[in-house]
Structure formats: C-alpha cells, structure tokens
Amino acid sequence: MSMLKIGDIVKHQKTGNIGKIIDYGYQKISDSYYLTTLRVELFTYSSMTSTVEDLFEQWQVWQGDRHTRFSF
C-alpha cells in the first residue's frame, strides 16, 4: 500500500471534494486503537479556504480525470 503524503492532491470518495493534503491526524477508537486521518484544504472558487478531515481510506490520489484508489 502506498502512503499519501502532504502536498498530494486528493479526492474524497463520497463527497467528490478535491483538495491538497496539509496534515495528518488520528481518530481514537479505544485506548489502544487509532485510525489515521488526513486534513485536506479544499479547492474552492472563493477567497475563503475550507479544511476538512476524514479517515485515510476515504481519500484517493487525484490526477485530473485519472485517479488511484487506496484502501486497506
């Protein structure tokens, strides 16, 4: 499995939003179990920027009309 890295352009599988990875995070499931998340700055047509965070597996590398899907 390839790791997505900061600066990669990604697309959210459910919403279709496209943006740039700016950071990593985590979601705590239990005291000893965490899931990796990605923080993504969305591309918009306005001067305001939006940042979203979701589980790693919800994002895929975006290359224009071609993309590569990552899953566990």
Written description of the protein model:
This protein has 72 residues and is mainly β. The chain has one domain. 0% of the residues lie in helices and 58% in strands. It has no helices and six strands. The protein has strands at 9-12, 18-30, 33-42, 50-55, 59-63, 66-69. It has a six-stranded antiparallel beta sheet, with no helix packed on it. A hairpin with a 2-residue loop joins strand 2 (18-30) and strand 3 (33-42). It is globular. The model has no long low-confidence stretch (mean pLDDT 86).
Helix/strand/pairing category: mainly beta
Estimate percent helicity. Answer: under 10%
**Widest sheet, order of strands:** 4-3-2-1-5-6
**Average pLDDT score:** 86
What is the makeup of the main sheet? 6 strands, antiparallel
> What's the number of extended β-strand segments?
6
Categorize the overall geometry: globular
Strand content: over 45%
Descriptive key words:
mainly beta; globular; six-stranded antiparallel sheet; 72 residues; 0% helix
What secondary-structure arrangement, pairings included, does this model have?
Blueprint lengths: L8 E4 L5 E13 L2 E10 L7 E6 L3 E5 L2 E4 L3
Antiparallel strand pairs: 1-2, 1-5, 2-3, 3-4, 5-6
